[in-house]
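Deliverable D2.4 — example input (structure tokens):
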């Protein structure tokens, strides 16, 4: 398969997951995109609707001449929050899994393969995750350092893994293979936390309600600021430079389309 000009879907072989099925990647390749151009990878929310995310980002990809890739973490292959939001860092009994089994590595391989199908010449990509995709994105960044991401934007996550080792996963990094050196490097990267100023519904139907998540704030906007504050504090304690920042979006709640409109000029401009 090849990623040609226009919109479509390719399947990439990927052994990791609850099944060995291939992983779909929904794409849009603008006519104006050159192989040396930017690649944007967008991660969908809990409904696993990669096609809708591709459609909502398509005009923005055209406007900025960016190759758009939206990997689909389907429910059969990546069931529940364990395999998607939490990256399969632990099994159902709460035991740490070997890093080879992490969904994060499946993501890296599939993105690389899709970039090759389009003939992309860059090593890196711009990473954007919204909602459950933002949960995946920030954990991926904390655990792997996101070495190939040219930019990382975490939008409207419902709960966060705090970059501290005195709390068990998923609340913190306790009991995981997280590495202090990787964290120090991540704190120095220009990670962007994007928060919708109207994402403040304490009764939002998909807002995580585990006690540790509720302790992070009563809604997503508050939880995002809490995560930022905890990260800044952890960087200070580690004596690490801290380059993260928060970008808030006025008038937008829990909406990928609304957040994308504000994100694109920052990420691709």
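Example output (designed residues):
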């Amino acid at each position: 398969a090849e990623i040609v000009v226009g919109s479509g879907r390719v399947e990439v072989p990927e052994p990791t997951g609850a099944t060995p099925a291939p992983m779909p990647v929904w794409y849009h390749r603008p006519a104006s995109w050159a192989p040396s151009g930017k690649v944007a990878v967008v991660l969908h929310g809990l409904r696993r609707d990669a096609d809708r995310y591709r459609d909502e980002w398509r005009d923005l990809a055209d406007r900025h001449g960016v190759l758009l890739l939206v990997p689909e973490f389907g429910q059969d292959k990546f069931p529940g929050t364990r395999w998607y939001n939490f990256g399969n860092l632990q099994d159902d009994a709460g035991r740490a899994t070997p890093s080879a089994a992490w969904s994060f590595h499946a993501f890296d391989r599939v993105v690389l393969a899709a970039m090759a199908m389009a003939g992309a010449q860059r090593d890196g990509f711009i990473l954007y995750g919204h909602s459950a995709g933002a949960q995946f994105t920030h954990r991926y960044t904390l655990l792997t350092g996101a070495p190939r991401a040219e930019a990382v934007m975490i939008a409207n996550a419902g709960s966060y893994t705090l970059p501290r080792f005195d709390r068990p996963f998923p609340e913190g990094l306790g009991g995981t293979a997280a590495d202090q050196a990787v964290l120090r490097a991540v704190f120095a990267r220009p990670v962007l936390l994007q928060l919708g100023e109207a994402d403040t519904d304490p009764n939002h139907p998909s807002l995580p309600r585990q006690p540790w998540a509720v302790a992070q704030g009563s809604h997503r906007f508050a939880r995002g600021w809490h995560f930022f504050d905890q990260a800044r504090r952890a960087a200070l304690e580690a004596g690490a430079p801290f380059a993260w920042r928060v970008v808030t979006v006025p008038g937008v709640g829990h909406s990928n389309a609304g957040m994308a409109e504000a994100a694109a000029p920052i990420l691709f401009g």
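Strands lie at 6-12, 23-29, 39-43, 67-71, 125-130, 149-155, 191-196, 245-249.
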